[in-house]
Design a protein that fits this description.
2 domains, 8-stranded mixed β-sheet, globular, Rossmann fold, 37% helix
Length: 387
């Protein structure tokens, strides 16, 4: 597919490392833009560094060290991934000045190695504010995908995060919001709704076989995939597991040491390749999003996995997230009893019509469509000298 943006250099400051997560919105879009542009994906520069007392501290440090060893790599998707060495001490002005020089030197070197110049800079993490002005950018985009100052994974003070966020919103030509609630509450005039999308064909087409790791688990199966961390409502999962021992929970993804759930019918299968997820979904009866409802980070959530669930046609049981308040065919709950009732309804009464309703809601909102829309917007800004 041809996109409107061609022959440009794009440098993206991501909020995560390319290697360790299922694709976020920027990953989906950038790998498509890389077909006609040079793209440099800069792995997280430190916002997610946890406190030393965090049970995941050593886990995350180990992952980051493995990323450092790769430094600059071209990935099969056609773009370059850089893990710059940085000092994530954003509370100190001196450390920030040293960090800025260190980051800029590495990114400029990587750009030269990748034959890139005068890039479109896409910042998807507030801390890029310190370096965006040193790269000779044609255009600065700022993607706000979460309520950043509510991120419990970060050891950095909220007021520091808010300051970086304000600076980037001022510096950016366009502020792109991935969540509907974030977008609607924003007072930024130069904002853009970068609505989430879905790799529809990947999830809608039934897999030819079932992954062995899940095939042996008795049905009915309730499944969740994604990072299993502090937003998971462990109390809800344990209560339901006890009250409905014949239901089997399956969690697919990296599990934080903060999450401690022990029940014979709760199964943690670990992370699986994105390409294999349909083989797991084939054995699933109900897709669930057991997130804490009273958490600020969750209230602003726009989880892509919900669209992926819907593309599969499977029933979806989730809290009443604002992002999906208009989505049809979703069963919502606000208590443990309501969760159990919703799953029972899904198991007993789901129909082909409801399956089609869910799939139709996301069918035309693919990452190809979203990439084309955004690339047209960026190309328009460049052609009109908006930089």
């Amino acid at each position: 597919m041809d996109y409107a943006l061609t022959g440009e250099s794009v440098v993206c400051f991501a909020g995560e490392d390319w290697w360790y997560h299922h694709p976020h919105s920027k990953n989906h879009i950038l790998k498509r833009l890389a077909q006609q542009n040079q793209v440099l994906f800069v792995n997280s520069i430190g916002m997610g560094l946890p406190k030393a007392s965090n049970p995941d501290f050593l886990l995350k440090i180990g992952r980051k060290l493995r990323s450092y060893l790769r430094w600059l790599r071209k990935v099969p998707e056609g773009l370059y991934v850089l893990t710059p060495i940085s000092l994530p001490f954003y509370g100190s002005k001196l450390a920030r000045q040293l960090n800025r020089r260190l980051l800029v030197a590495q990114i400029r070197l990587a750009m030269r190695l990748c034959s890139m110049r005068r890039p479109v800079v896409w910042a998807a993490i507030p801390f890029a504010a310190d370096v965006i002005h040193d790269l000779g950018a044609k255009l600065v985009l700022y993607q706000v995908s979460d309520k950043y100052d509510a991120n419990e994974d970060s050891a950095i003070a909220r007021e520091v995060i808010r300051d970086f966020d304000r600076r980037l919103k001022t510096a950016a030509t366009l502020v792109m919001y991935s969540g509907r609630k974030l977008y609607e509450e924003s007072e930024v005039s130069h904002r853009y709704f970068l609505e989430q999308a879905v790799d529809f064909d990947h999830f809608a087409a039934p897999a030819a076989s079932t992954a062995p790791a899940i095939a042996a688990i008795p049905r009915p199966v309730l499944a969740y995939f994604g990072w299993i961390d502090y937003v998971i409502d462990a109390e809800l999962v344990e209560q339901v597991a006890r009250l409905r021992p014949d239901w089997n929970w399956v969690f697919i993804g990296r599990k934080s040491n903060l999450v401690r759930i022990s029940a014979p019918n709760v199964h943690f299968l670990g992370p699986k390749p994105y390409g294999e997820l349909p083989q797991y979904l084939r054995h699933v009866d109900v897709c669930v999003l057991p997130w804490k409802q009273d958490h600020e980070f969750v209230r602003y959530g726009s989880a892509i996995k919900v669209r992926e669930y819907m593309a599969s046609g499977k029933p979806v049981v989730m809290p009443p997230l604002y992002e999906y308040s208009q989505a049809p065919g979703i069963l919502r709950y606000t208590s443990t009893d309501e969760f159990i009732g919703a799953v029972e309804d899904a198991l007993a009464g789901d129909t082909a019509e409801q399956r089609k309703l869910r799939q139709d809601w996301v069918r035309n909102y693919t990452w190809d469509v979203r990439t084309l829309q955004l690339s047209q917007t960026i190309a328009h800004l460049l052609s009109n000298g908006r930089h």
